[in-house]
Every structure is written in C-alpha cells, then in structure tokens.
C-alpha cells in the first residue's frame, strides 16, 4: 500500500494529495532557495514515482521558472505559500516539506549547496530555543 500525504497552502485555498514514496529530503542552501524562502535554506522532498493530485485550488497555483537556471517555485497566488511542482518534464516531483499537513516520518538526508550558506547560518543549534515569541 502506498503512503498518502496531504498538504495545503497557508490560507487553505489550495489543497493537494501526494500518493507514493519520497526518495530524498534535502535542505538546500543555494542562493536561489535562500532568496525564495527568505530563510537559511529550503526543505524539499523529492520523488521520481509519487503522484500529485490537486484537491482544490489548482487554479490558484502559479509556477515561476528562474531561467536559465533549473530553479522552479510554485506558490499560492493568494497567500504566497510554497507548493509542490514538477521538474524534468514531469519526471521529478518536488514538495516543500512545510506544505505537508501532519507528521512526516522521514528526516533530511543532507544539507546541499553548503558552499552558498549564508554567513549567519552556523551553530544555529546552539541558540536558545523558545516555546513562543519572547516578550
């Protein structure tokens, strides 16, 4: 039996289902992923066999291709949340890990493009960890 995963954007106007297995889970530190997430890295799941099904809101999904690179980002046109997309003429499904609802048993395989890491992105595990916004 294949695994099923469900996900959505932040506003909930786009919902999707993934059926199948993820092959890899990477934290990418390249300049493009840092720029489009506004963070230290992206967290993406990759699958060459899983199937993506849009449950609702496919008309709200916009895909941006950064030519001439291979960088692609799909997002909700209402809230801007990152959404799954297909690469390599539909042969590779890329799913932002944060777009999934519920738990994911898989942990990242590796950090990639670490030569492009932000200069402030080191020893972050040593920072205080707070339950909520300080105040």
Number of helices: 1
Low-confidence stretches: none
Strand content: 35-45%
**What is the β-strand count?**
12
Measure the end-to-end span: 47 Å
Mean pLDDT: 93
SSE order, one letter for each helix or strand: EEEHEEEEEEEEE
- Major sheet: order of its strands? 9-10-4-3-12
What general outline do the C-alpha atoms trace? globular
Largest sheet: 5 strands, mixed
The radius of gyration computed from the alpha-carbon positions, rounded to a whole number of angstroms, is: 15 Å
Helix coverage percent = under 10%
Account of the protein in words:
It is a single chain. With 135 residues, the protein is mostly beta strands. The protein has one helix spanning 31-37, and strands at 4-8, 15-19, 24-28, 42-47, 51-56, 61-66, 71-76, 82-83, 85-87, 92-96, 100-101, 110-112. A 5-stranded mixed beta sheet has the order 9-10-4-3-12. A 4-stranded antiparallel beta sheet has the order 5-2-1-11, with no helix packed on it. It has a 3-stranded antiparallel beta sheet with strand order 6-7-8, with helices on one face. β7 and β8 (82-83) form a beta hairpin. The longest helix has 7 residues, at 31-37. 21% of the residues are buried. The model has no long low-confidence stretch (mean pLDDT 93).
A few lines on this structure:
With 135 residues, the protein is mostly beta strands. Helices cover 5% and strands 40% of the residues.
